[in-house]
Amino acid sequence: MIGHSVGGAATVPAMLGDRRIRAGATLDGAYALPVTGLDRPFLQFGAPVHVPGGTADPTWDTAWRGMTGWKRWLTVDNGDHNMFTDQLLLIGQAGVRLPGVRIDPLRGIRLSEAYLTAFLDQHLRGRPAPLLNGPSPRYPEVRFWDPVPARR
User: Fold this and answer.
1) For 2-143, CATH number?
2) Composition of the chain by helix, strand, coil, percent to 5
3) What is the pTM of this model?
């Protein structure tokens, strides 16, 4: 299950309530409910406001600690909340430039496609996805975070 914004916020509660959902991702969504014991693969993928320790949305830090399965926390430098949709691309085609948007809309779509395809291939098809192992020269704007110290 993958959701953007409010849809992303709904992903974890759905996974906690339904074991048939084998993997999930939030695309720039805040968490509305506590995350505890999420033992299946999860991807947090968002705009720069979602860096660890950020004040814009501290729910990502809290949720991360409640995830016990495979997980990745990615942000996109110069990213925007709507980069995961075609909205920025369509607005640009209409000749409108949104203030504060610094990512090329097509670039946002392409990197979203790449990382989400890798995530689904790895966790639903069982295909190794090296793109999820760390930073890639092909996508230098994507940052990998691991804000929780390893348990001993």
Assistant:
1) 3.40.50.1820
2) 40, 15, 45
3) 0.91
